[in-house]
Amino acid sequence: MPEHPTPQPHPPRDWTDGHVERWLPVLADLDPDIEGAVTRMSRLTHHLGRVREQGVSDYGLHKHEFDTLHVLAGRGGHAAPSDLRADLNLAPASVTGRLESLERRGFVLRTPSTEDRRKVDIVLTEAGRAAWQEALDVVGREERRLLGVLSEDERRTLSGLLRKVMLAQEATAGG
Amino acid sequence: MPEHPTPQPHPPRDWTDGHVERWLPVLADLDPDIEGAVTRMSRLTHHLGRVREQGVSDYGLHKHEFDTLHVLAGRGGHAAPSDLRADLNLAPASVTGRLESLERRGFVLRTPSTEDRRKVDIVLTEAGRAAWQEALDVVGREERRLLGVLSEDERRTLSGLLRKVMLAQEATAGG
DNA sequence: GGACTGTATTTCGGTAGCGAAATTTTGGCA
DNA sequence: TGCCAAAATTTCGCTACCGAAATACAGTCC
C-alpha cells in the first residue's frame, strides 16, 4: 500500500477501532483507550500463539511443548514443576500433563529430588535441547516482524507502560 | 525492598524484568523491549481472563458464556455464528459448542434463517440479556483498576502503539 | 436446469486445560 | 517421639477448544 498524501496524524483504523465504535453507543461509560488496549493485547496474544503453534509444528513440536522446553532451557536445563507452573501461568495439574508427554517423547527426564522427596527434578535431555534450538529461531520472527513496525523508542515506551500496569497487577496478586 | 537513594527514572521491576534478565545471557540477540512487551501482554491477558472467570461466576456465568453474550449484546441481540467466530477469535466448531450450552440455559435462541437456509440466527433472550447486564459491571472493573494506573495520555499512547502493531498483523492475516 | 464451486454450520475424535481432592513428605512444636 | 499444618506433585472428572471432514444450501456457469 503506497503512502497517503494526507498528513493527518490519524493512523488507519484496525479491527478494534470498529469493535469499540460499535460498543460506545451501548455502554456510554466505556473508556475507548482501556477497551482498545485490552482488546488489542488479547488479540495479539492470541495471534502470536497461533503463529507459534504453526511455526514450531515444522519441527514436530506443539506450542505448549516448545514453551515448556523454552522455560526449562532458560533456567539452565533443570527446574521444579512449580517453577514451570509459575513461569507458564498454569494450574499445577496442567504442568503434570505437559511433563507427561514431554517425558514420553524423551525431551525431559523426571527424577525424584534427593534433598526434598516431595520435589521432582525436571531435566532437559539432549534431544529436548536440540528440538528447542531448532524451533527457536522461528518463534521470535513474528514477534520481531510485528513489534518491528514500532521504533526503538516506541517499543521502549510500550514495554514501560505495560510494566506500570503489571506492577499494579502483581502488587495485589502476590507474584 | 526499600527505595534506593538513586534518583533514576527506573520504575520498580516487575516479574517480566526478571524473566528477560534470565534470558539475556542465553539469547544474546533478544530485544528486551520486544520480549518484555510480548510477555507482559500475554500475562496481562491471562490475568484478566482469570479475573473475569472468577468475577462473573457470582452471577452463575463462565467467562466464555459471558463473552459470548457480550458480543451478542454488542451486536444488538442477534448475530450469525460466523460473526461470533470472528469477534471471539474462535474456530467454527467452538462456536457451536458455546451456543449449545447457552441455548440449554435459555440465554440464546437458535432459529434457522429464513432468507438463507445455511445460516442460523442467534438471538439473545431476555434471560440472556439479564444475566449479561448483571455481570457487566464486574467485568470492566479490573481492567479499569489496572489500566487506571496510567494517565489518560499514557493510555492513549498505549492504545495507539498497539494499534500500529495490530495494523501490521491484520495486513497479512486478512482480517 | 444440472453440475460445480463456495459458504455456513455442525459433527467427530482427540488433546489440553482447570478445580478440587488425594498423596507423600517436610518442618515445627509439644 | 508423635502430631499437625503447610508444601509439592499427582490423580480424577469435566469442559472447552481445535482441525478435519461432513452436511446442507446458495449462486454461477454452461
Give a verbal description of the structure.
The structure is a homodimer of 175-residue chains. Chain A contains 7 helices and 3 strands, in the order H-H-H-E-H-H-E-E-H-H. Chain A starts with 14 loop residues before the first helix and ends with a helix. The first copy, chain A, has a 3-stranded antiparallel beta sheet. Chain A is mostly helical. At the A-B interface, helix 1, helix 2, helix 6 and helix 7 of A face helix 1, helix 2, helix 6 and helix 7 of B. Chain B binds a DNA duplex (30 and 30 nucleotides) through helix 5.
Question: Mind sketching the topology for me?
Answer:
2 copies of one chain form a homodimer.
Chain A: H1 15-23, H2 32-56, H3 63-74, E1 78-79, H4 81-88, H5 92-104, E2 108-112, E3 120-124, H6 126-147, H7 152-173
Antiparallel strand pairs in A: 1-3, 2-3
Helix pairs in contact in A: 1-2, 2-6, 3-6, 4-5
Chain B binds a DNA duplex (30 and 30 nucleotides) through helix 5.
Distance between the termini of chain A: 44 Å
Mean pLDDT of chain A: 89
Major β-sheet annotation of chain A: 3 strands, antiparallel
Shape of chain A: elongated
What fraction, in percent, of the residue positions of chain A are helical? 55-70%
How would you classify the helix and strand content of chain A by structural class?
mainly alpha
Biggest β-sheet: strands ordered side by side in the sheet of chain A: 1-3-2
Element-by-element helix/strand order of chain A: HHHEHHEEHH
Task: Count up the helices of chain A.
Answer: 7
Number of strands of chain A: 3
